[in-house]
Amino acid sequence: MNKDYYEILGVERDASPEAIKKAYRRRAMKVHPDVAQDDAEAAEKFKELSEAYEVLSDPNKRAVFDRGGDPMGQGGAGFSGFGGGFAGGFDFSNLVDAMFGAASSRGPRSRVRQGQDALVRVNLLLHEAVFGVTKPVKVQTAVVCPKCTGRGGEEGSQPVTCSTCDGNGEISQIQRSFLGDIRTSQACPTCRGYGTIIPRPCGECSGEGRVRSTRTLQVKIPAGVSTGIRIHLEGQGEVGPGGGPAGDLYVELAVAEHEHFRREGDNLEVVVKLPMTAAALGTTVDVATLEADWEGSAPDERSVAVEVPSGTQSGTRIALKGRGVPRLRGGGRGDLGVTLLVQTPTKLDDHQRELIRQLAEARDEMRPEAIAAAKGGKGMFGKLSEWFS
């Protein structure tokens, strides 16, 4: 023996079976005659490469080769020299397994299989997401056929063995090539790989054992959810072929924007307009809370009295602890942030104008000096712009 199969495959002598398979797959894709058509020696190289893989992938033949013996000698199946091709024929499925890492199917496949997961999207109002709700959700999925209860056949009809594949679920073909006889396997076209045939398929599901149906589920949505969160409902997805186990259902939530409130994590934010005189003198204002949208809230929770100190500036934010969003993980609630927007009067009668003029004279503000805001500070306009964005 003057061939070094390790050198042909380009692996070390202590290479693992997985490394040998990867090396063969990599080189076979380069020297296969269908790929390297410009190489006159491609067929010979591929035959030599396949011989090396046959030896090194077989523990017994590899042991014989490592001891200096002839693994293709007496008792060795496969090659019989370069001139004779593959003496015993070549199972193409083994080549596919080595080159592409996918073994061919063996035996009939089951009619009963696991169903797929399903996804539905549900729109929520802000108060539903904040306080939680039980929502009716329509789901269109595959369910067990009510007529045959998943069997796939009419009453009394039993599956019979496929005569084309004798129940194997696949058929084999042998083709001659320069490499010798190549055997390929494919799913039986008559039974589609099941190995059996249903003589009288169910008229409702056409033998699938399942049908499409729309059903309504009552989905409990916890308080504090937000857009993008998915609720997992085990076993509520697609029923599998043949009435197989159902997959899971995922309910993805999308929360609509509110007319007045804005959510920031576990906090709720609201802007309240305040007259200039009230901001200057100080006052108490009643601010509606999000509970006003929720029928399950107590009447005294639907508004809150906010103390506005005298001299309050536009853009001032007052935080009301525990009036925000319930924390989805953990206890307690966030804050309700009330941002005050001081409004300057635009329509004044003569009496009001005179009063304001007298105030300006008393405060020496008839010709006020413009003072630039501190660098780096957000200021009133920065805060309001940030809120409205």
From TrEMBL:
Keyword Disulfide bond: no
One Pfam family linked to the record: DnaJ
Co-factor remark: Binds 2 Zn(2+) ions per monomer.
Subcellular compartments: Cytoplasm
Keywords annotated in UniProt: Chaperone, Cytoplasm, DNA replication, Metal-binding, Repeat, Stress response, Zinc, Zinc-finger
UniProt binding sites for Zn(2+) 1: 145, 148, 202, 205
Annotated J domain residues: 4-69
Cofactors demanded by this protein: Zn(2+)
Record: residues binding Zn(2+) 2: 162, 165, 188, 191
GO cellular component: a single term: cytoplasm
Zinc finger (CR-type): 132-214
Gene3D superfamilies cross-referenced by the UniProt entry: DnaJ domain (1.10.287.110), Heat shock protein DnaJ, cysteine-rich domain (2.10.230.10), Urease metallochaperone UreE, N-terminal domain (2.60.260.20)
CDD domains: DnaJ, DnaJ_C, DnaJ_zf
UniProt-listed PROSITE patterns: DNAJ_1 (PS00636), DNAJ_2 (PS50076), ZF_CR (PS51188)
Domain annotation CR-type: ranges: 132-214
GO biological process, one term: DNA replication
Segments annotated as CXXCXGXG motif repeats: 145-152, 162-169, 188-195, 202-209
Organism domain of life: Bacteria
Primary location recorded for the protein, binned into one broad class: cytoplasm
Record-level Gene Ontology MF annotations: ATP binding; heat shock protein binding; unfolded protein binding; zinc ion binding
Quaternary state and interactors: Homodimer.
Function as written in the Swiss-Prot or TrEMBL entry: Participates actively in the response to hyperosmotic and heat shock by preventing the aggregation of stress-denatured proteins and by disaggregating proteins, also in an autonomous, DnaK-independent fashion. Unfolded proteins bind initially to DnaJ; upon interaction with the DnaJ-bound protein, DnaK hydrolyzes its bound ATP, resulting in the formation of a stable complex. GrpE releases ADP from DnaK; ATP binding to DnaK triggers the release of the substrate protein, thus completing the reaction cycle.
HAMAP family registered for this protein in UniProt: DnaJ (MF_01152)
Family to which the UniProt record says this protein belongs: Belongs to the DnaJ family.
Name of the protein this chain belongs to: Chaperone protein DnaJ
The species this protein was found in: Tessaracoccus defluvii
Taxonomic lineage: Bacteria, Bacillati, Actinomycetota, Actinomycetes, Propionibacteriales
